[in-house]
Structures are given as structure tokens and as C-alpha cells.
Amino acid sequence: MAIATAERPTATGIRTHNALAAGQLPRGSAWMVLAGGLIFSSTFFALLAAAGATAGFNIVGAVFVGTVLFDIVLYALSRIVEGPRRALDRLVTSLVSTAFIIALLPLISLLWTVLIGGLARFDVTFFTQSMRNIIGDGGGALHAVIGTLLITAMTTLISVPIGLLTSIYLVEYGRGALARAITFLVDVMTGIPSIVAGLFTFALFAMLFGPAVRNGFMGAIALSVLMIPVVVRSSEEILRLVPNELREASYALGVPKWLTILRIVLPTSIAGIVTGIMLAIARVIGETAPLLLVTGFTFSMNYNLFEDRMMTLPVFVYTQYTQAAGVSAQGSIDRAWAAALTLILIVMVLNLIGRLIAKVFAPRRGF
């Protein structure tokens, strides 16, 4: 049954629509109520922090109380204007939204804590200097940022071709015992602890070059052991989603199988593949244990992956936090938080780049 809308004449004779008189809340009212609840709760917790009742601004409490207020106020407004039936529907919808926001609270708390702790040293000096000859405050993490980018790039260069080709084999060619064995081994590798990957790489290079060798390439090999199974599993699932009708249409036109994969299957699934690769990179870029074993740490710049030790951001955070002592303890802790914030921002930028690549190279829909 259609709901009649109420209109009233104005001084100019033009009739205007009145949503409240029509028995319904205006469009976007739920968002306005949510924003109002978050603003009210944030103000309340800010006043508590200013009065010294809490140890700083409690972002988790502010978001939680704001969402609860959103549920109560929206239900009350909807019951007054729209009636009990529509109010109950809005209440259930708002409770689902509240459950989603509550699930995000740990992430919100993490981001807020890292942001507050990292802004103290998030300056130009932090990104233009290394820790060479630095004792106490000052210094930066340029050597760690460069090391992280180089090792992650080499890891991606090793892992993506191997993982993607393996997934293509499993989906397009793999049959029988060999395919089942590869799938089983990939599943086993997915659960390998990161420290085991580091020990494996250390043992391999110690056997070939001696126990004293440490370099960035060893870190890339260790991270590849962790990244390859993630790429394989994510790419395999995406490739299986490509409709068989597309392959059959290509075969019917006489296109060979390898060219069908190259020109039909991969372009169709490129968005999902890139997303899986970005998730795999985010999985390994923050690993600390294997890099402590095989790359070590240094206070100086090193652009050569195949020579000498190399610092990375996760190891930088670990060393700065564990070595915080004396009068310069706060400076080390500030550098650790700033490095953690930098690592989160790098992952965010990589994901944005991945989404942009997927959008550019994804097949066009429609005509």
C-alpha cells in the first residue's frame, strides 16, 4: 500500500513535500542521528579526559556509546513519526550496523593508538635520516623504510610469478595425484610459522655461503616462503570464478588454451588477483621474526640486497622498543611508534595502488 505524502501550499502557491507529515523520517536521517550520537559521545569523553577522570580520550568508549545512542534515538524518532512497525524495522537494521561497528572497535583502537603515539616523531627528520651515529633523541628511519621497500619488492618479484603460475596449473591443467599433492603442500605451507621460514632460509644460506652471511635477499627468500601459498590460494579461488562459458567460447573460435588463459581468463580475474596479491604483501610486510634471523639490523643505509645487513621497519620497531632505556627511552619509543605508523601507511598506499591497477586493467562491462 502506497504511503500518501503530505503537501502544503506556501506563500508563493508552490506545494512543498513534508516527510514528517507523511509519516516517515527524512532521507538520510539515520546518518544524521549516527553522526549526532558520535559527536555527543565524543564530546562527553573529551570532557572526561580534560577533567582527568580518564587517562586520555577513550576512542573505543566514544564510538560504542555513540552507536548505542544511535540505536535508541533512531528507534524513538521512528516510533513517534513512523509508527511501531517501521520503528522495529529500523531498530533491527541499526543493531546490525552496531554489531559491525563493534567488530571494528579493535581496529579503531589500534589505529588511534598508533596515530597518537606516532605523530610525535612523524616529521621530515624521521624520513630523511638514518640512525647512524645517533645516540639519544633524533635520528630517523630512512634506512628502515628503504630496506622494507626493497625486500618487499624482491619478495613480490619472486612470489607472484611462482604463485600465479601454480594457481593457473591447478585450475587449468592440474589433474590427478600431482595436483592433489601440490594443493596439500600449499595448504601445509599456509600454516607454517614465520620463524620456521626464517630458520629454513638461514640454514639454506649457511650451508651454501657460511653461517655469518646476512643480507636483504635472504629476507626476501624467507618472506617468499610465507607469501607464495597465500598468492596461490587466493589466485586459485579467483580463477575458478571465471565462467567456463568464456573458455568454451574461446575454444570454439579456435583459440589455443594458453592464449585463452592469457587473453580471456587472466583479464577477467585481474581485479581479484591483484587484491589477493595485495593481501599477501600485507601479510608479509610486517613480519619480524624471520628478518631478525636472516637480515639482522643495522643503523646505516644499505641499498644492496645482496651485501651486508639491512634494516626493515618491523625490526626497527622491535629494536627501538627493546633498547629503550635511560634518559633517551622516550625518544626510542617515539621512533618505534612513528615506524609502526609508517608501516601502516605503506600498506594502505599499496592497497590503494592495487585497487587502482585492478580498476584500470579490469575488463570493461557493457557497450
TrEMBL record:
PROSITE patterns the record matches: ABC_TM1
Gene name of this polypeptide: pstA
Lineage: Bacteria, Bacillati, Actinomycetota, Actinomycetes, Micrococcales
Pfam families per UniProt: BPD_transp_1
Source superkingdom: Bacteria
Protein name as it appears in the record: Phosphate transport system permease protein PstA
Protein topology in the membrane: Multi-pass membrane protein
Transmembrane segment boundaries: 30-50, 57-77, 97-120, 141-171, 191-209, 216-232, 261-282, 336-358
UniProt cross-references to PANTHER family, sorted A to Z: PHOSPHATE TRANSPORT SYSTEM PERMEASE PROTEIN PSTA
